[in-house]
Design brief:
seven-stranded mixed beta sheet; alpha/beta; 188 residues; two-stranded antiparallel ribbon
Amino acid sequence: MSAPPELPSIVSRAFDVSRKSGYVSFCRNETGRLLATLAATRTGTLAEFGTGCGVGTAWLRSGVQPGARIISAELDAKLAGAAAEIFEDDDSVEVLAADWSTLRDKGPFSLLFLDSGTPSAVGVDSIVELVEQGGIVVLDDFVPCEMWPPITGGRVDTLREQWLTDERFTAVEVMIAPDASAIIATRR
């Protein structure tokens, strides 16, 4: 996929913090560019659940509109602390050492970014009320699938199926790299 090789400075800083922390699981650049593009269309409050060392949050920050706010929650206090360092001089970003469910009272969100996981944790029913009408949910870390129903690991991928068929959202799966896809869902 075509993309300029340069990274926004805030994203480079996040990668540096991630490396120093020994954290290697982070938002891919392809997903990051998608996040920055979508963040540029949003106002209000954006959120990320599962900050890690802040690479996804940095991508969101690189595209966000002036006046918008980003809140990110990371359960691991050490990782949250490392991510918070990236944004210590940025009043528009708040990183919390907390479970994502603690952000329920800080929404609804205009954009919500989270990793795919178990349907009970990040399924539509768990997330729908956290997103404003017209708000966008981005779920990443899917393996592309060309069949219906979607099959992953020899089983129906119920999370993917749920997001792509729920009538409260208009959703699409997009391939961001040959080995990775994301679901983008807009709340009706």
